[in-house]
Structures are given as structure tokens and as C-alpha cells.
Design goal:
Length: about 280
């Protein structure tokens, strides 16, 4: 195997992070065809295939998944050495995935705390669903993720536990004898599954009043009076109340947010601190 050209490594990292040759080209200042040539050269030098290509998608191969972190480490070391030679310091890039439920309205405060605690890092933050973030983390697309434990069922470092509450707008009234109007995310959300399991176990009939794609959408629907949602206590919006006791709804379990990280302890500790104190 010959030397690994940083330019080839950057092209590969760009494609891995964007799932697109075109977007990777925009990041690296090259055309789509030039990026494709670079990936092919890198694969030839490594003696294995990095990407599985189809007309509609680009995915990492098992070898590509394993090599992605090595490529990032090589580029980070390369840039750090060049910066030292030039008398400059290059910030460390940290790709962080955060569950929509974990951050909520506190996201600006959390990011500010991270930037203050570790000014030498350059944070790239993605907010999304826990299950998807964790899959991308396992594929090497994130350095760390803070997600709901129940969504991934893998051992992680507990960031915090949170109470779940049945939430409705202050002026909302549920008519006795009618189905509970449920406001929730899609079926893949662990929080929805916890809520529907609790309702089914307690023989409380319900129907979907609103299905959202993010916590902010659920908060908006609840605030507008569309129905009742199961939310983390920290995500209960202003103008809403806990209606669990009022409507004799089933008790909800506590939920746990966990950190999964392949970074140094100092970075993991800073992430945990930012969330615990927000």
C-alpha cells in the first residue's frame, strides 16, 4: 500500500458524512466526478471497497465504516501538525448527535456551555431521533451522541433521568367517555411506545389527534389544545399542565438519557455537565 494522500481522505470523509458525491464535492471544492476518482484511488491504495454505490444511494461498506474513524484521525493529526508548523492551532472537530427530547428548548444554552467549557473544540451538532442518531454513531458518523436509552437498548453513560408527564394545555378539557386524543411522534419513538403501552395496559382508549416529526411540533400541538401528550418534564411548554392525576391516567415510568462517546474523557465529561446543568 502506498501513502494515503490527505486529499483522498478528505474526499472520502465528505462522502461518508453527506451520503453524496455532489455534496462532498461542494465541501472540498471539487466536481462530483473528481470526488469519484479520488474515492476510487483511495480504495485502490487500501485494497478494499469503502462505499457501496447505487443509483439512489451511497452507503459505507463494513470496511468503510471501520476505516472512517481512522481517516478522521489521520486528517486531524495532519492538520494539527501543519498548524503547528505555521504557528497556528487547529480546533478539534467534534460531531455530536443530540436527541430532540434531550435538548428541547435548552439547546442554545447547552451548546453555549459546551463552547465555553471546551473552546478548543469546533462543535458540529445534529438534533434528531435517538434511534437514527445511534445507528449513525455506530457507523462512525458521530464522535458522540446523547440519546434516549430506551430507543437504543445499549449500555451507555447515564446523563440524567427524567420524569414523564401527561401534558395538556391549561384550557384543555377531555370529555368523559370519549377516546383520549393522543399527541405524539411517529411509532418509532420510544416515548410514544411507553405512552401507548401504559394506556393499553390501563384500558384507556385513545386515538391519534396529532403525529409530529419532532418535539417542537408536539409541543405546538399540545399548546394549541389538540390533545394530551406524554412529554419529558423538562419539555412541558409554557401554558400547559400535568393532567395525569386529574384524568386518572396511568403512571408513567422515568426515562433515561445516555451518552455514547468514543472521545476522550474530558469531552464526554463536558457534554454530560452541559446537559445536567441546563
Amino acid at each position: 500500500m502506498t501513502d494515503l494522500d490527505p486529499d483522498l481522505l478528505r474526499a472520502f470523509i465528505g462522502v461518508a458524512e453527506t451520503n453524496s458525491f455532489t455534496k462532498a464535492g461542494l465541501l472540498t471544492g471539487a466536481s462530483q466526478s473528481a470526488v469519484s476518482v479520488k474515492i476510487k484511488k483511495l480504495e485502490e491504495r487500501l485494497g478494499d471497497t469503502l462505499l457501496a454505490r447505487s443509483p439512489r444511494s451511497v452507503q459505507l461498506t463494513p470496511f468503510g465504516t471501520r476505516f472512517l474513524n481512522d481517516a478522521r484521525d489521520l486528517i486531524e493529526l495532519h492538520d494539527r501538525v501543519i498548524s503547528r508548523v505555521n504557528g497556528k492551532d487547529t480546533p478539534k472537530q467534534v460531531l455530536l448527535g443530540i436527541s430532540d427530547h434531550a435538548a428541547g428548548a435548552r439547546l442554545p444554552e447547552i451548546i453555549a456551555k459546551l463552547c465555553h467549557e471546551l473552546p478548543e473544540c469546533r462543535w458540529h451538532v445534529t438534533v434528531g431521533l435517538s434511534g437514527r442518531l445511534f445507528r449513525d454513531y455506530k457507523s462512525g458518523l458521530f464522535n458522540a451522541v446523547l440519546v434516549r436509552f430506551e430507543d437504543v437498548e445499549a449500555t451507555g453513560q447515564t446523563a440524567f433521568e427524567e420524569e414523564l408527564v401527561w401534558t395538556a394545555a391549561n384550557d384543555f378539557q377531555w370529555e368523559a367517555g370519549s377516546n383520549l386524543p393522543l399527541v405524539a411522534l411517529a411509532s418509532s419513538c420510544a416515548l410514544r411506545q411507553l405512552a401507548t403501552t401504559a394506556l393499553n395496559t390501563a384500558a384507556v382508549w385513545f386515538e391519534d389527534a396529532f403525529i409530529g416529526t419532532g418535539v417542537s411540533a408536539v409541543q405546538a400541538a399540545v399548546s394549541s389544545g389538540l390533545g394530551i401528550a406524554c412529554l419529558d418534564k423538562r419539555n412541558v411548554p409554557d401554558g400547559c399542565r400535568d393532567v395525569g392525576a386529574e384524568y386518572q391516567l396511568p403512571k408513567l415510568p422515568k426515562t433515561r438519557m445516555a451518552l455514547y462517546s468514543r472521545e476522550k474523557a474530558a469531552i464526554g465529561s463536558a457534554i454530560l455537565k452541559a446537559f445536567r446543568t441546563a
